[in-house]
Specification:
Structural class: alpha+beta
Number of strands: 4
Largest sheet: 4 strands, antiparallel
Oligomer: single chain
Radius of gyration: 23 Å
Length: 182
């Protein structure tokens, strides 16, 4: 019975830590494929009053900053992404004593970054497709599920890392207070 409980706990941790990020990365790639095959560039589809889908190619980084117009810039972004993903993977290996939320946060960033890297390798740009707006106010950029994964993972990691670890006060017993010297 105890082994079953440990196994069940392990499976739940594994599902939360890995299944959610992998599902988001797959959903992102499937949505990008749908967008590429069903929307012409900059065509809009309204999902609800606040969300629209479009087909946008982002050759830069976040919010289209630092666009890669030359092959050197494009390969530099790919190299930088690989270095950052490698650093995150190395950091993940060091999280043995961290919370499961911290591990999931790093995995969210890793898989979001990997999903956008796949786009760069396949299409020479990242496929963005989500537009958020409220009446005439628009979110300052078009984004995708991988970007959300990176953002949520980064925020989760910062929030869980900034909490100071709780220290358990040690209790001094009467025998500890009388040390004998030899």
């Amino acid at each position: 019975m105890v082994h079953y409980m440990i196994f069940k706990s392990f499976v739940m941790i594994l599902m939360v830590t890995w299944l959610i990020p992998i599902t988001l990365a797959c959903l992102d790639q499937m949505t990008k494929s749908w967008v590429i095959h069903n929307l012409s560039p900059h065509q809009l589809i309204t999902l609800c009053p606040y969300i629209q889908l479009t087909h946008s190619l982002n050759q830069g980084v976040t919010l289209g900053l630092f666009p890669a117009h030359t092959p050197l810039q494009h390969y530099s972004l790919i190299t930088l992404t690989l270095i950052l993903l490698g650093s995150l993977l190395w950091h993940y290996q060091k999280l043995a004593q961290s919370t499961h939320i911290q591990k999931m946060a790093v995995i969210l960033v890793l898989l979001g970054g990997t999903s956008n890297l796949i786009d760069r390798l396949m299409y020479q740009s990242v496929i963005d497709y989500i537009i958020l707006h409220l009446n005439s106010w628009y979110w300052p950029g078009i984004f995708n599920i991988a970007d959300v994964s990176i953002t949520v993972g980064s925020i989760l990691y910062i929030l869980t890392s900034s909490r100071s670890p709780r220290t358990i006060p040690t209790r001094i017993t009467p025998s500890d207070s009388h040390q004998t010297s030899s």
